[in-house]
Amino acid sequence: xxxxxxxxxLGMFLFLSAFPSKMAQAGMYSWKDDKGKTHFTDxxxxxxxxxxxxxxxxxxxxxxxxxxxxxxxxxxxxxxSYSLPRQSDREYVIPLIPTxxxxxxxxxxxxxxxxxxxxxxxxxxxxxxxxxxxxQLGYRTNSQSAQIPFxxxxxxxxxxxxxxxxxxxxxxxxxxxxxxxxxxxxxxDGLLGxxxxxxxxxxxxxxxxxxxxxxxxxxxxxxxxxxxALWWKTRYSGYANKIKNFKLEAKKMEVSGHPxxxxxxxxxxxxKDLNQKLNKSAARAGVPKQYRSSL
Length: 295
Hints:
Blueprint: H1 21-26, E1 29-32, E2 38-41, H2 49-52, E3 58-60, E4 65-66, E5 92-95, E6 97-98, E7 104-110, E8 114-120, E9 127-130, H3 131-136, E10 147-152, E11 155-169, E12 172-182, E13 190-192, H4 194-197, E14 200-205, E15 210-215, E16 223-224, E17 227-228, H5 229-256, H6 261-285
Parallel strand pairs: 8-13, 9-12
Antiparallel strand pairs: 1-2, 1-3, 4-8, 5-15, 6-7, 7-8, 7-11, 9-13, 10-11, 11-12, 14-15, 16-17
């Protein structure tokens, strides 16, 4: 079997060493001390013994679950280009859950129905979800799925790809979010990476345990369906570049006889499908042709 090779596509590698293995095995816990202060930790063994006695004094966060409906799920109206709507000066302030390892967790709503607790990772190219969460969302992946390689602490691994209908954090929502599926996450739901965060300018206010998300573009820029002209141009060019690069890489792998070349071909089809869905959204929203790019 030919050795695995590194695919030279900028930003397509996820370093899963960003979260400790103990966290993947143990889950997330909170506990209150004698003064009533709440603490968060990524391991049961880190909670003082007296608060672990008889399983009292601490709380374990449950894995991904169906939404209770407490979050507002109203759809944003589609806006016509004839009125040339302008982007507002809005921002989203998201509360974060700090861990003793120095990382931050955040509550995320997937496809408007499944809530999960995700680790924020601005160094990760993609949102990554556990295989358990993928199944709960109704996705099925296998060895024939579109896959890409990721560099991890344990070496190169290949992970299936899927497109999430929507990812919502607080009131910030992104449609058609690329995500990889990792079957080695234990009880952890996943990582919130740049395939969501890249739609915003991100500010991490660690002192207040908050994340501030500001949409791409400037106030007063034209926007369609609540997304700025810069957003549309960036999304189109991103898809076009990935399709081009995956095509080139697939040809190289086919020549070398690499066993995963078919999976990379499927990545080309994966991004072509996303581009078609983007075209449909742009047509509905009335986005002018100068803000779209053709393949």
